[in-house]
């Protein structure tokens, strides 16, 4: 009896995990417009990027050690690709009630302290994170312009070494953007995002 119960629990866990994983955008999907408040006080929407070739959209935060490890690499991506039509847009979806260090005021301080040149917005209601299916910080979605829309071209990690930038051998996001700039599809177009889980609001 206990064996049957364990098998049932394992099955339900796998099923639940599969359902969660399947939520959100996948490669090739058109992204819905959204509008969020940036640390500059302005409301930012995808419409503001209509003249860009795409967006490097990063679900990020102030507090996660992995996000902190990638902070300079995210800034470098913006420095390298903003002028080529792929700026970084960082989205903080952590619930400040659970993670006070990710409040809007702390976001403003963090962006100023670290001299962010890229846009940093707060997804206070967590609707954008849920629509994308974001799970981690950092979790990257490279978007490409397709007519009047933005389509998902790459999902996943920034590179293959979260701990040591000097030991990176695969630059997934950089390679994806370079492929798009050449008119090609990224290969790979999906990797596993490594980082802290997004701190969801408690029901």
TrEMBL record:
<protein>
    <submittedName>
        <fullName>Thioredoxin family protein</fullName>
    </submittedName>
</protein>
<dbReference type="InterPro" id="IPR000866">
    <property type="entry name" value="AhpC/TSA"/>
</dbReference>
<dbReference type="InterPro" id="IPR036249">
    <property type="entry name" value="Thioredoxin-like_sf"/>
</dbReference>
<feature type="domain" description="Thioredoxin">
    <location>
        <begin position="25"/>
        <end position="182"/>
    </location>
</feature>
<dbReference type="Pfam" id="PF00578">
    <property type="entry name" value="AhpC-TSA"/>
</dbReference>
<dbReference type="GO" id="GO:0016491">
    <property type="term" value="F:oxidoreductase activity"/>
</dbReference>
<dbReference type="InterPro" id="IPR047262">
    <property type="entry name" value="PRX-like1"/>
</dbReference>
<dbReference type="GO" id="GO:0016209">
    <property type="term" value="F:antioxidant activity"/>
</dbReference>
<dbReference type="InterPro" id="IPR013766">
    <property type="entry name" value="Thioredoxin_domain"/>
</dbReference>
